[in-house]
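User: I'm putting together a teaching handout on how multi-component assemblies are represented. Below are the sequence lines for each component of a complex, exactly as they appear in our records. Could you produce the 3D structure of the whole assembly as C-alpha cells, so the students can see both representations side by side? Please keep the chain order the same as the input.
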Amino acid sequence: GQQLNQSPQSMFIQEGEDVSMNCTSSSIFNTWLWYKQDPGEGPVLLIALYKAGELTSNGRLTAQFGITRKDSFLNISASIPSDVGIYFCAGQLTLQGAQKLVFGQGTRLTINP
Amino acid sequence: KAGVTQTPRYLIKTRGQQVTLSCSPISGHRSVSWYQQTPGQGLQFLFEYFSETQRNKGNFPGRFSGRQFSNSRSEMNVSTLELGDSALYLCASSARGSRDEQFFGPGTRLTVL
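Assistant: Of course. Below is the structure of the complete assembly, with chains in the same order as your input.
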C-alpha cells in the first residue's frame, strides 16, 4: 500500500534557526498536506499543495509539492518557541471517488530557547 | 463556526469490552473520516463516511465499525477490545471529502487495561 517516509524523525534546534523536513513516497499523490499537532490536540492543517511543483508559503512556513508528485518538503524560518510540536506530512489521493489520506510518521520539533 | 467535536475525550476500558466514540463534524460538512493514532504506527486511516454511507475503509479488523447519521454526526464502535486498541482516535470532517481539506477534532484517548 501507500507509504510515506518522513524525515527527520526528530529535531533539536535553537530558537531562531531554520527548520527543514521532507516526505517521500513511491506512490504518486494528488495533494500534499502538512499538519502540526500539539499535545492533546488533533492535527491542524498548515499548508495544502495541489499541483506538482507548487510552492506555497504561510507566514514563516514554506512548502513545496515535488515535481514527480512523490515528495514534498516543509521549511520553517526563524523558529520560535510556539513552533514546538509534531509535524506530519500527508499525501492525498482519490480512489474510486473516495479520498484517502496517508500520513508520514511525523517529525518532532524541540526548540531550545 | 464551531470546530469538530469528539466525545468523550478520555476513556478507560478493559479487555473484551466494547466502546462507542462520537464525532460531530463542522456544520455543513458531510464527510467524516476516522483515524487511529499510536506511537508505533502513527496515524492510520480507519474509514470514511459520506452522506451516511461508508465510502472508504482502511485495513482494520471487523471489530472496528462505524456509522453516520443524517445530521452527519458519526460514531465509531470497537468491539471485544484488545490491549493494542489503546490509542488516540481522531475524526476529521470535510465539506465534500474529495479535494476539500480535512479538519481534525481533538481526539478521544482510549486506554484498554
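A couple of points students might notice: Chain B has no helices and eleven strands. The mean pLDDT of chain B is 93.
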